[in-house]
User: Which sequence fits this backbone?
């Protein structure tokens, strides 16, 4: 049996292998996809930057940042750069889904770590796509607007806020932005209004999700929701103007969708909240507060979500596919996503004002790492829940998937 250091190295090697092969489709998979389409079921998009790729990259980028092994770091960059080259040469370098934001986050991180302009160029392209992405009438980013859907998914909100927060913080730091409203736009990448616009859009995603997707009894999340207006609101609605739900909540009809407490939905939102909490800390360090952008505070919300997560941690250290089902099947993708998001705040000292809870977090993270290794064999992370076909459509198939492999590697690497 491998010790943990050997197993960790094998996990990295396996993650690189999976990234190298993620766009390959076997004849059997082609037939399977045709049958699924005929049945009206969803098929994983053949997008080189889609979220499974992003999750593998997330694990590798965190490994790169926290590794002192030059050879290992070089292998990671070779794998990622090869994938980027394939994205350009075989797929035209297109960005087509909000899910590409997770890969965008990795590009922001790589630019910060290496200074390589190509990573910034890709991040800029993804930023433009996200800023122009269609929203519902409250400003929430639609998940799949091409199908005339009004659905808001935790997947999309978590990924886009994670990217937006990292991108904004990177720009503010690299351009030495002063966060004032009267800056010279010829000197700075952002002018004041663009800074405020970007931050405002980021905060709006969380404000809306809190109103419409948070269960007020358990404080767990639904997978998503869609909104409609009352007849009165429709009559007074000016097309193109966003409505703040806090000003007319009784006139908005909300349909909450999916399973309450689905582990990966919780994980997606934790990814967005953790990175956005770091942005908020940065903004407060520069301005003293964030009230000029929002009355909503991300950091307290992030801490509360971490406390909720710890309350649902299983005895074996992991998290179940449905959070409340602590004796149900474990899901290593949710486990990795949640642990990584908590570790990020822990490393940044976000829990430092509450030593008792900080100790609980430390214990939680130790248990998670033991759990990950217990569900890994020869570098292959198992027991991840298969992809979700739609709201509340989970086939309870468990095994090795990119989202489990990448998320667990990220959780292990950030804690190294």
Assistant:
């Amino acid at each position: 049996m491998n010790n943990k250091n050997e197993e960790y190295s094998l996990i990295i090697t396996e993650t690189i292998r999976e990234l190298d092969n993620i766009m390959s489709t076997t004849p059997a998979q082609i037939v399977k996809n045709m049958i699924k389409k005929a049945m009206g079921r969803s098929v994983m998009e053949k997008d080189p930057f889609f979220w499974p790729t992003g999750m593998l990259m997330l694990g590798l980028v965190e490994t790169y940042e926290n590794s002192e092994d030059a050879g290992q770091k070089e292998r990671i960059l070779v794998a990622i750069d090869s994938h980027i080259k394939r994205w350009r040469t075989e797929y035209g370098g297109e960005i087509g889904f909000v899910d590409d934001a997770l890969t965008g986050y990795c590009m922001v991180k790589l630019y910060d770590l290496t200074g390589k302009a190509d990573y910034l160029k890709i991040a800029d392209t993804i930023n433009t796509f996200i800023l122009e992405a269609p929203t519902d009438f409250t400003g929430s980013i639609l998940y799949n607007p091409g199908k005339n859907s009004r659905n808001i998914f935790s997947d999309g909100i978590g990924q886009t806020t994670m990217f937006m927060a990292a991108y904004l913080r990177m720009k503010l730091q690299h351009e030495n932005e002063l966060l004032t409203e009267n800056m010279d736009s010829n000197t700075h990448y952002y002018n004041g209004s663009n800074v405020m616009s970007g931050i405002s859009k980021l905060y709006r995603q969380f404000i809306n999700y809190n109103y419409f997707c948070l269960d007020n009894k358990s404080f767990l999340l639904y997978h998503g929701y869609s909104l409609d207006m009352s007849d009165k609101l429709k009559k007074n609605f000016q097309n193109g103007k966003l409505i703040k739900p806090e000003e007319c909540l009784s006139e908005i009809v909300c349909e909450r969708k999916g399973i309450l407490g689905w582990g990966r939905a919780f994980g997606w939102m934790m990814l967005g909240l953790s990175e956005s909490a770091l942005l908020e800390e940065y903004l407060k360090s520069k301005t003293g507060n964030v009230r000029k952008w929002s009355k909503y505070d991300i950091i307290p919300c992030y801490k509360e979500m971490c406390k909720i997560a710890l309350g649902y941690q299983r005895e074996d250290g992991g998290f179940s596919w449905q959070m409340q089902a602590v004796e149900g099947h474990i899901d290593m993708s949710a486990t990795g996503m949640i642990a990584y998001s908590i570790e990020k705040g822990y490393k940044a000292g976000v829990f430092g004002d509450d030593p008792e809870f900080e100790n609980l977090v430390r214990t939680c993270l130790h248990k998670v790492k033991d759990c990950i290794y217990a569900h890994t064999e020869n570098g292959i992370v198992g027991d991840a829940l298969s992809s979700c076909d739609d709201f509340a459509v989970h086939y309870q198939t468990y095994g090795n998937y990119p989202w489990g492999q990448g998320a667990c590697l990220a959780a292990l690497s950030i804690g190294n």
Notes: The two ends are 21 Å apart (CA to CA). The first strand starts at residue 152 and ends at 153.
